[in-house]
Amino acid sequence: MATTPTWPGGKSAAVSLTFDVDAEAGWLGEGAEYARRLTILSEARYGVTRGVPRILDLLARHDIPATFFVPGHTAEIHDGLVQTLLDAGHEVAHHGYLHLRSDKVSATDQVEEIDRGLDALAKAGAPAPRGYRSTSWELTPETFELLVDRGFAYDSSCMGDDRPYVEHWEGQSILEIPVHWSLDDWPRFGWNIDGGGNVADPAEMTRTWISEFESARAEGRHTSFTMHPEVIGRPYRLAHLERVIEHMVASDDVHFARLDDIAATVAPRLLAAR
Ligand SMILES: [Zn+2]
């Protein structure tokens, strides 16, 4: 396939590294019973106390700007987290308030997830978020309409293409920067005593993600990877992420960008073609 450099710097591929800082909200949003499960909550907290600093060091080593999706609850209980991310030059985007799954709660609760999330990020010092990612990537018609109504520039929850595209619902549309389960750390490593992933060999992730990058490069595509600090922030897994990054950097053919920057780059072409 012909390579058409359309990304800044004449690079063939664009890559976004994205981190969902679910922290305790990732469990508390599953049910009130998690409030007394101190072990699982402590692993969630590890994502903020150990995972995020390691990730920030890695991104700084390679001078890569990234996008962090932060639930409002996480921003509230982890004082200074949002400011630390902003100070390092990263994007802070919307990931609900208590990480409630839109498909499992009422329309009223969906409004609260969006608006309390906006309030919490604002109180933590973040500029109005440009992007949104739904909990567990389950986007509903009600939340879709809220995103359009609240003026979000992009959503990053759907899988209808492997390039940025325009997602539609009943006459409304939003710029979509797609995701995929194969490009997510959680299905590989997100194990807990009740189930989940299978504590996979991180070398599989390295091979798969490098393959994805090379396919994006061949097609001149943007691609994004989704990670969770308590998962990818375990040292041996982060070492494998660094191998993926080193491969991309060595190609000298990649434009690393935050999702809001990707949205700004592709929006004129995609939204004009609607
Ligand atoms: Zn999440």
From TrEMBL:
Record-level GO BP terms: carbohydrate metabolic process
Listed Pfam families: Polysacc_deac_1 (PF01522)
UniProt GO MF annotations: hydrolase activity, acting on carbon-nitrogen (but not peptide) bonds
InterPro entries from the UniProt entry: Glyco_hydro/deAcase_b/a-brl, NODB_dom, PgdA-like
Ranges for domain NodB homology: 38-274
Name the record gives this protein: Polysaccharide deacetylase
Annotated organism of origin: Gordonia asplenii
